[in-house]
Amino acid sequence: MASWAPHKVNPAVSGYLRNCAGATCKDEGVVCVEYGYQVAVDGAADMDVKETKRLDEAAIEEDAIDLMMALTQLHPDHANWLDRSFVWSAKEDNDWVREQIVDDPASHQSPINHFTLRQSIYRSDPWSERTNSDQRRAWSALEAGCLRVAA
User: Fold this and answer.
1) Which end of the chain has fewer CB atoms surrounding its CB within 10 Å, N or C?
2) pTM above the 0.85 mark?
3) What pLDDT is stored for residue 136 in this prediction?
4) Residue 13 and residue 15: Cα distance in Å, rounded?
5) What is the pLDDT of residues 88-135, one digit of tens each?
6) Closest CA relative to residue 5, chosen from 66, 80, 90
7) Calpha distance 83→95 (Å, rounded)
8) Cα-Cα-Cα-Cα dihedral of 116, 119, 122, 128, to 10°?
9) How many CB atoms lie within 10 A of CB 71?
10) Are strands 28-33 and 11-14 parallel, antiparallel or unpaired?
């Protein structure tokens, strides 16, 4: 989920409770647990180390993804430029963020729809230009040489 944001957004997903991916100290984190997924927000592992706060729990993967998409869209829609998500949600009040995403299922569909639309318009793969161009052919000789050396 690449997206424009007022500041970098570091998401993480951990497949089990030992949390090897550090999902509990990222801007957005999902930890798989035996009953589904715990979605957490507002962590940081930069100059300020902050543990995430649990936003909600999801029984199925699609619900966890929906929560993450809504949060990823809500941040750029309402944050000031260069506000990390934990700074923004502290200014907005964490309860307001929860109300927008969790408490009213109808209201969290709007940021999801906005996110999906924005991704369809603005998302582009910067490498696809090179793979379909003359530059790709220019590098093919070098790649072939590297393959011979490696073999």
Assistant:
1) C
2) no
3) 57
4) 6
5) 877 777 777 788 888 876 777 788 787 778 777 766 666 666 666 565
6) 80
7) 18
8) -150
9) 28
10) parallel
Give one word for 86, left, alpha or beta, with left for phi > 0 and alpha for psi -120 to 50: alpha
Q: What does the block give as tokens for 51?
A: 């543990």
Inter-axis angle of helices 105-122 and 61-78, to 10 degrees? 70
